[in-house]
Amino acid sequence: MALIKAAQSMIAVGKLNVPVLEITQAADVGMGSFYNHFDSKEELFEAAVADVLDSHGAVLDLLTSGIEDPAAVFACSFRLSGRFFRERPQESRILLANWGALLSADRGLAPRALRDIKAGVAAGRFHVEDPELTLAVAAGALLGLGHLLQSQPDRDAGATADAVTEDVLRLFGMSPEDAHQVCLLPLPDMLFQE
Amino acid sequence: MALIKAAQSMIAVGKLNVPVLEITQAADVGMGSFYNHFDSKEELFEAAVADVLDSHGAVLDLLTSGIEDPAAVFACSFRLSGRFFRERPQESRILLANWGALLSADRGLAPRALRDIKAGVAAGRFHVEDPELTLAVAAGALLGLGHLLQSQPDRDAGATADAVTEDVLRLFGMSPEDAHQVCLLPLPDMLFQE
Fold first, then answer.
1. pLDDT range class, residue A56, cuts 50, 70, 90
2. ipTM for the whole complex
């Protein structure tokens, strides 16, 4: 949809304080069309971030489709998502401000992560009693990671993301050795810039 | 300060959409005085939440002052903080919307948690390589817990908070048995209502 694409372009270059009129002009739609779909600019930006999360999730599915071990699938996705905060600072800022979207049960990353956690349990790799609760904690850990990477620009994003991934895997009941091994696996290339 | 107290009273009864004028009248100060201290109502609400976190931290310090084991101090504080989300829904809503305040390094809960994590490491109870990173992950876990307790009102707040505390303690490098034991300790009474 043209308005979401326009909002994503604005977000990508850090233009967050633009008037609605400028967004509708960039999208080549009328003001009425905007208010048919969204109550406010914030709502449009939130939809734009949800859309980014959907795309990000679809890319992760593609990149991990060849990996058999569910623990390795989760680790790869989490390590790449951590790096995303450093590579895409504008989307990250909006995401951190609208973090409910990350935890939303029906779109974006949450349903994929829940699927991966359950697959890890079924394969005997994870030992988790309450997958929904574990998902909330893991998503919170990802947010804490994102906040830290944004507030400490000199921090090594890759090493920090991998350390949090190891933490989360141990929290999922993996042994420290197994968690460490799975985070040493080579990462697929992910193009963060569109 | 009168404005902060007035804002906390509004928050406590769920009046979040009040005009600034109503807040200044409740605080018995002029509009000019408001804008000398705050740029917006959101900024005042954020300061009010930071103040709640400071008080909460001071109460936790008092309640845990008799506990010697630093792991038990952290566990007690985390278990009580999780319950806070259920007991004080209005403050929690503002806190979840302004979660940067929770992670702020210089006020409220973050410096206390960092102190407790370092004490646990010094006592050989926690095995943590990067305390700042661990703090960010633990704070994120607390946010995820808060989000879950707010979005699932039927969920048992005590059991859920204790489960997340165990998760976090294992992430701090405690054995599952030790983490479980420390979360079975009796909790001091905490009056959540003012």
1. confident
2. 0.81
